[in-house]
Amino acid sequence: xxxxxxxxxxxxxxxxxxxxxxxxxxxxxxxxxxxxxxxxxxxxxxxxxxxxxxxxxxxxxxxxxxxxxxxxxxxxxxxxxxxxxxxxxxxxxxxxxxxxxxxxxxxxxxxxxxxxxxxxxxxxxxxxxxxxxxxxxxxxxxxxxxxxxxxxxxxxxxxxxxxxxxxxxxxxxxxxxxxxxxxxxxxxxxxxxxxxxxxxxxxxxxxxxxxxxxxxxxxxxxxxxxxxxxxxxxxxxxxxxxxxxxxxxxxxxxxxxxxxxxxxxxxxxxxxxxxxxxxxxxxxxxxxxxxxxxxxxxxxxxxxxxxxxxxxxxxxxxxxxxxxxxxxxxxxxxxxxxxxxxxxxxxxxxxxxxxxxxxxxxxxxxxxxxxxxxxxxxxxxxxxxxxxxxxxxxxxxxxxxxxxxxxxxxxxxxxxxxxxxxxxxxxxxxxxxxxxxxxxxxxxxxxxxxxxxxxxxxxxxxxxxxxxxxxxxxxxxxxxxxxxxxxxxxxxxxxxxxxxxxxxxxxxxxxxxxxxxxxxxxxxxxxxxxxxxxxxxxxxxxxxxxxxxxxxxxxxxxxxxxxxxxxxxxxxxxxxxxxxxxxxxxxxxxxxxxxxxxxxxxxxxxxxxxxxxxxxxxxxxxxxxxxxxxxxxxxxxxxxxxxxxxxxxxxxxxxxxxxxxxxxxxxxxxxxxxxxxxxxxxxxxxxxxxxxxxxxxxxxxxxxxxxxxxxxxxxxxxxxxxxxxxxxxxxxxxxxxxxxxxxxxxxxxxxxxxxxxxxxxxxxxxxxxxxxxxxxxxxxxxxxxxxxxxxxxxxxxxxxxxxxxxxxxxxxxxx
Length: 815
Known about the structure:
With 815 residues, this protein is α/β, with parallel strands linked by helices. The strands form 9 sheets. A 7-stranded parallel sheet has the order 15-16-14-17-18-13-19, with helices on both faces. Strands 5-2-1-4-3-6 form a 6-stranded mixed sheet. Strands 20-32-31-23-30-29 form a 6-stranded parallel sheet, sandwiched between helices. A hairpin with a 3-residue loop joins strand 3 and strand 4. Helix 11 packs across helix 12, helix 22 runs parallel beside helix 23 and helix 25 runs antiparallel to helix 26. The protein is globular, with a radius of gyration of 31 Å.
């Protein structure tokens, strides 16, 4: 009998593909296993089995699979169900979800191998380049494409290989390779013979002249008696004070032998401390959460900054672990995971697994396997947004901390999902409870809570009854007029900083722009250097003396003179974190100034180093971008300064005011968290702006009602849903024609609910011109039918020959 399998390929094609398998293979295969299959001309992919059946495909002849890659499934059924929901809701292919979800080591793509033809002998007809490859193949039987490129000293090698294939010099084949390598730790043990006392005495007598070897043997016994555990070769070398050559000599004499044990790359100490005792307000909140969870699956915990939400989470986590279930703890920023890991590890030790993009591929594979097998090390999963894709089998609780954060939304590449919304769906599939925590909830979540769709629990008091920080608005327009500014600092902010530093307290300064200055301008002709690939000016980074594009990463050295008029009167406009840091070093030369932005946190432990230095008070003033605002807890910070509030308020986006409020309240919340009331100074050209007034009085409800009114009036979420369509292509005329055709087609169906076409504020990125359309979906309109219509129009659009090269991007809930 003939059997078939449907597979998901890690490519952006909407459908699944069918391959044929033998009866034995069909019996062995299970949903969620990987098989190597050929697709296209010669490419091999690691495809994921979605179904095993006996129905042959109608439109093409099914190819055979290449090989089976797994002995058991690496993806479980609930996970696949969640992936199918993501694919359908966010209008992307299952292959894109598969590619985004699994660590890249699982997506074994093939490599082209070049093999020599033994029968070929006519060397005279070869060109110089062809002869180089021929000669290399005489020395080794096969070469990879990468090795061929090295032999020729250039990247474009396929024309030469094609020519050699035509001349029958060589052949090529595809070979699939595994990129995950388990970590093996080398251990050492005594050969069985020497376990008897008499033999051991003989051995020590034998080694009396080889003092170092004798020392190694004696140290081995000391360690064995002290620990009763297997002994690492590295530990023995360190404790005995000998070299690895001494151990190798003992192994070659058949006294010791080496063996290896596979181990995880990331391991936490198994320390277990008692959970902190909750105060009365936290106790009331915890009790309310448990009560509401009896009726509702999702609860919003609206707790002011520093109210002790994490302690409430830990109590709930403990209860879920006690009944043997897994917990997913989502955080918006990797910076935040470094602090939370330490806090949770104190209570739960080895039960924690961490999963985010700063971890290596091998570390992520190990985390994946621990969670899949429901190991003791995979009970609490702490991660950024991609952690929702992991193979949970027994999820009991999902905590989404700082649920309002824009970082939970994935914009590029597809799938363009929102981790908070996807986590709610994931929780419902596992019949788990979902807790959303924030001091400044997003309008949608607060709206769902007030509509009784979610439960709502409030924590209105800071831990230890410390007052919320005092907020002072500073009018820099007035200060500039009176010449009371020093660089970008008002006299009032400098006074507050001096007072805090005298008291040996720490300061956080917030400026939401990195680099030294966003614009370098010629004061003679007004020209400023632009990025050649994007419609944006280059940002000046003084530390490296270069101009950088923050969109495509193009960089060039700082010019000595203006490129337009040749004048050397170049000046900077605006300011970023780097400029603030340098100004502070001049203003406060006796204090340590630190900076935390994506330029200073590049390495794997970049965040950790800065956060630990600030916590241990090695840094007095920390300047940073929005990564500073997210839930970090520093005990000794008494002052927070926001240097320019206006840039956040004047952003062209319907959520600008809500986001500005959230960001400023969150940054303010870093002040005065342990002892006395903190202080926040906000510099602005317009201190009477309603959002700044609401921040200064901490009036979340006032901001919520006002913004909700605007959203209702102008038809925006949470009342209307949004789907954004973006077209990209390097030819401006083509994009223009495409967007106009698309706008007409969509307006025929959705009438006045189509906004655009519009250009984004940066209308060309990486030499691709960008045009947008926005579709608003009224409350009573079917979302599924709307998506169906959009999909039909997309299919028609892609059928038009001129529009085929244009990149068509759909972003559901694009905010």
